[in-house]
Design a protein that fits this description.
Elements: E1 3-5, E2 24-26, E3 41-45, E4 50-52, E5 56-58, E6 60-68, E7 74-79, E8 85-92, E9 97-104, E10 106-114, E11 123-135, H1 141-173, H2 177-193, H3 195-199, H4 204-209, H5 225-235, H6 241-259, H7 266-284, H8 296-321, H9 325-341, E12 344-345, E13 348-349, H10 357-374, H11 377-381
Parallel strand pairs: 3-6, 5-11
Antiparallel strand pairs: 1-4, 2-11, 3-4, 6-9, 7-8, 7-10, 10-11, 12-13
Helix pairs in contact: 1-2, 1-6, 1-8, 2-5, 2-8, 5-6, 7-8, 7-10, 8-9, 9-10
Domain Imelysin-like: 146-376
Subcellular location: Periplasm
Organism: Pseudonocardia hierapolitana
Length: 383
């Protein structure tokens, strides 16, 4: 069944989170839509409409093929209950088509959303998943090893994130502005490497990494790294800066607690790797992310390292299923690393304000070139 939904786009923060999932065996009968035959569900995303070619699909691996016919860069999401992000694909330029592969093991009511301009709640419509499915990760040793290995890597990053953020928080509370400024990009490095995992929890990311102009519910404060970044670089430390620092530390420890038991799937890893590159394209190369400190290249490097970490965990499966893809990934990651080294200054990087338009063009091209093979990983590991 084809449907077209149209709705006003409300401005709000949507930090993308990836929760895409692995190949499944579905118990549901075919729905009669495009997904019934195993093919992708076509999504036509325009500036004021979001036409999804099927309103339901059987549980298991669902692929959406999203074509942007509008004039704005867009995103496409599948949400579960409470706006839990089941899967997303970001940074789809006008005229481009990108696939979102998402595993939905449980039948029920879901929501699709196109987000022209990558802002707002998006143009939403209900989506039904029928039956239930079993994740293949439980049956495939290589995939299970990949998720276990990645979980260990994420844990190691959080074990560094906690003390480094504590050092930053202590400096803020001590009123030591220069030390806090020096520690800000260092602490964020560990955060940026694992951001898709944090985003999968939904509520934590806006608290830790929200921007000042994100829309919030009444009474919800602007908190996290960027609130303190503004205090340090623009406004000067405020009366409530110590409380903001304590809140950041509490949210980081909440992340640590939740991550200890999080269940990851191979396609989450693959989609997370691509989302980190999308973060680079939409937030770092544009200078939007660290708009007060201009330390965006630190985040850029960390996002790429996070993407590489996820892909590395899946590498045995990639090599088994598509031996040609791994060498291309190696080459493209190496090219981005080499380019970033040109901008290294000591243990850090040049400020964003020191970059020329030519610098930004070269970075955008390198990230786009890397994003193309990384976008193939989800399809390969679920094939």
């Amino acid at each position: 069944m084809s449907r077209t939904s149209r709705a006003a786009v409300r401005v709000t923060t949507v930090i993308g989170a990836a929760a895409a999932l692995a190949a499944c065996t579905s118990t549901a009968p075919p729905s009669g839509g495009d997904a019934a035959g195993g093919g992708p569900i076509a999504v036509t995303a325009a500036d004021a409409s979001c036409d999804v070619a099927a309103a339901e699909a059987p549980a298991g691996k669902i692929t959406f093929s999203v074509r942007n016919t509008g004039s704005k860069i867009t995103e496409f999401y599948l949400y579960g209950t409470g706006d839990r992000i089941m899967g997303e694909v970001e940074n789809i330029g006008p005229g481009l088509t990108r696939d979102l592969i998402v595993e939905v093991p449980d039948g029920g009511s879901y929501t699709t959303a196109c987000k022209p301009g990558m802002v707002g709640d998006g143009i939403r419509a209900p989506f039904t998943v029928t039956g239930s499915a079993t994740r293949s990760v439980d049956e495939n040793t290589r995939l299970a090893e990949a998720t276990t290995g990645y979980h260990r890597w994420v844990t190691s990053q959080i074990e560094a994130l906690v003390p480094k953020t504590q050092e930053f928080v202590d400096a803020v509370k001590a009123g030591d502005v220069e030390t806090a400024k020096a520690l800000f990009p260092v602490a964020r490095t560990y955060w940026e490497r694992i951001e898709p995992v944090a985003e999968s929890f939904g509520d934590i990311d806006p608290k830790i990494d929200g921007r000042e102009d994100d829309e919030r519910d009444a009474g919800v404060q602007f908190t996290g790294y960027h609130r303190l970044e503004k205090d340090l670089w623009v406004d000067g430390l405020q009366a409530d800066s110590p409380a903001m620092a304590d809140q950041l530390m509490a949210d980081i420890r909440d992340l640590q607690s939740r991550t200890a038991t999080v269940e990851l799937t191979p396609v989450q890893l693959a989609n997370g790797a691509k989302e980190l590159l999308d973060e680079v394209a939409t937030g770092k190369i544009t200078g939007e992310e660290d708009r007060y400190s201009h330390t965006d290249l630190w985040d850029f490097k960390a996002n790429v390292e996070g993407s590489q970490g996820a892909v590395a965990s899946l590498r045995p499966v990639i090599d088994e299923k598509d031996p040609t893809l791994g060498p291309v990934l190696d080459e493209r990651f190496a090219a981005v690393d080499a380019l970033l080294e040109e901008y290294r200054v000591g243990d850090g990087y040049r400020l964003y304000t020191e970059l020329t338009d030519e610098d930004k063009r070269r970075m955008a091209e390198a990230v786009d070139a890397l994003g193309e093979p990384v976008s193939q990983v989800a399809g390969v590991v679920t094939s």
